[in-house]
Amino acid sequence: MDSPTPTSPYARVTVLGLGVLGAQIALQTAAHGVDVTAYDVDDDALRAGRERLERFAGAAARDLPDLADAYGAAPGRIRLTSDLADAVGAADLVVEAVPERLELKRDVWARVGAAAPPSAVLATNSSSLLPSAMADATGRPERFLALHFANRIWAQNTAEVMGHAGTDPAVADQVEVFAAAIGMEPIRLHREQPAYVLNSLLIPLLGAAAELLLKGVADVETIDRTWRTATGAPAGPFQVYDVVGLRTAHAIASADPASRAWADYLQENYLDRGRFGVESGEGFYTYR
């Protein structure tokens, strides 16, 4: 017999950044009955974020028809603002999903730490940076940890909960309950690990695919078809790249000197041409 879904320990959640994952986190949270405020830097970013919310709501409703009404109503339940202090001023939980640059994240967390209630729990969705690299910027490292989601979070519904050495274990326990309350499968990590569990498994695959392409061993379609056919996986590595987003892939590659050639390849052949993956309708593949 399935266990009942727990009630969220947080009544008010703020999501910082309405990019691909930020919009999904806000949508998933709102669809499960929690009040959500979403922040982005200006009106243009908020408009783009609103479009993502609507698009993801449609995708989630198609994938999970039993919850179609909840996902359909969720975008209208999310309050948008470009005022950071207003966004976090009454938050119980703040989830950050801003671009993957350490100094930017530290700056955002310093501002959040000064404006959010002392009781608020603070979580980064960073896919590659460790929470210990940002914790001190918040001014409350014991209430700070990582909460990492995968793309298409309503279906591929892992939520990796990873504290740092100074995280209060009770805070991590509470965040794990929150993840379950919004329909996720909590994955608890016992210590910090760059790339968590999911990306520790995924990144070597994507890196091997990039190397095969750069060396001219095979083209994108052949590499993907090989992986799908041989493993039964629904998507090949370059299809995964498109879902993750090529800007995210570029940011991660740029931070690693050994991946400089791959970062340059993505910049010249895709980013400079406005091809960012599924989010823009074109990446390694073209999407409707």
Automatic annotation (TrEMBL):
Name the site position(s) for Important for catalytic activity: 148
Gene Ontology BP annotations: fatty acid metabolic process
Its UniProt pathway annotation is: Lipid metabolism; butanoate metabolism
Q: Which InterPro entries match?
A: 3-OHacyl-CoA_DH, 3-OHacyl-CoA_DH_NAD-bd, 3HC_DH_C, 6-PGluconate_DH-like_C_sf, 6PGD_dom2, NAD(P)-bd_dom_sf
Q: Which Pfam families match?
A: 3HCDH, 3HCDH_N
Name the Gene Ontology molecular function terms of this record.
(3S)-3-hydroxyacyl-CoA dehydrogenase (NAD+) activity; NAD+ binding
Question: What EC number is given for this enzyme?
Answer: 1.1.1.35
Q: State which residue ranges cross the membrane.
A: none
Report the sequence similarity comment from the record: Belongs to the 3-hydroxyacyl-CoA dehydrogenase family.
| NCBIfam families referenced in this protein's UniProt entry, alphabetically | PRK08293.1
Q: What is this protein's name?
A: 3-hydroxyacyl-CoA dehydrogenase
The organism is: Pseudokineococcus marinus
Classification from the root reads: Bacteria, Bacillati, Actinomycetota, Actinomycetes, Kineosporiales
